[in-house]
Amino acid sequence: RYTWVTGKEPLTYYDMNLSAQDHQTFFTCDTDFLRPSDTVMQKAWRERNPPARIKAAYQALELNNDCATAYVLLAEEEATTIVDAERLFKQALKAGETIYRRSQQCQHQSPQHEAQLRRDTNVLVYIKRRLAMCARKLGRIREAVKIMRDLMKEFPPLTMLNIHENLLESLLELQAYADVQAVLAKYDDISLPKSAAICYTAALLKTRTVSDKFSPETASRRGLSTAEINAVEAIHRAVEFNPHVPKYLLEMKSLILPPEHILKRGDSEAIAYAFFHLQHWKRIEGALNLLQCTWEGTFRMIPYPLEKGHLFYPYPSCTETADRELLPTFHHVSVYPKKELPFFIHFTAGLCSSTAMIALLTHQFPEIMGVFAKAVSMISRTCVEYL
């Protein structure tokens, strides 16, 4: 639909190729040959041409009306509205639950049956998460929250799907800030990997307590209160993790449709976060004002050179290259802000280098440098007399 309206391709070939690999990883296994419909779907996921993939999905349904992955493909690639996609995902859920129960009963019979259960579990979780996202898009937020909570409770090992980040966004839409804090308390742990959603949501909650009364002029006169210091430190922490987000939140840079895959700490993650969370920052009075006043101070706190980190590992230099593969060509990719050295340091370094060079030349070529020095002094004296 984005292409119909704008005439631009929102997803790059690299991004879509990663999706194709994900589908093959999640939705296929070595036992596909035991079920004819799964054999057809295995070929469908490898097919590059979208019409051919859709045709293969219908062929799989003719062989087995309970082929869950066929409904998933149709929901993602044939449906043109969220309502149509949700209808197909509900059919996929009904079929997926039936297949999952069968696999559970046979899981201990052989390694092949265990692999089949893992695949059927992946399919079921994927369908439920997609249904939660459909409910969120259609405004049924409490229903979406319930599905996500049930998924996290029933399948805790599958944190790679980042369902907790979808849950954070839905709870923010409900303005259930106590529940948001409870989720953060579980996932914003030193031993767990961070993300822009976690770091910036934590900053938003701390900012919320002080932003409505914050004034730069007042703060400069009386100093920052403890709550304001905590909010500023949380913003600095978030900006150090992903420095690209503030320009999108402050609308200093245009948003685009997020890619299907994001790179942690990269521009792609910043776009995805701002795309879904900008409204939550706007809803809290003064939050964006506090962000604008404080976010650039982060780069004065990070040690120099940039190979050193402060609160996180040093920012990886390879993110720019990967983001250029993930983001469309019409988007100007953000790069890590360079830390500028003061003019005095540049001036001093230049002066010392010049002095050292003159001393070296004088030592090596004393006669030539003597003539050069006399010529310079005569020119200087002439200029002074002329003035």
TrEMBL record:
Which CDD domains does this UniProt record tie to the protein?
ST7
Pfam families recorded: ST7
GO CC term, one of those recorded: membrane
What are the UniProt keywords, alphabetically? Answer: Membrane, Transmembrane, Transmembrane helix
Regarding the membrane, this protein is recorded as:
Multi-pass membrane protein
Query: Is Phosphoprotein tagged as a keyword?
Result: no
Task: State the compartments where it is located.
Answer: Membrane
Q: Which residues cross the membrane?
A: none
Q: What is its main location?
A: membrane
Q: Does the keyword Zinc apply?
A: no
* Family in the record: Belongs to the ST7 family.
**What's the protein here called?**
Suppressor of tumorigenicity 7 protein-like
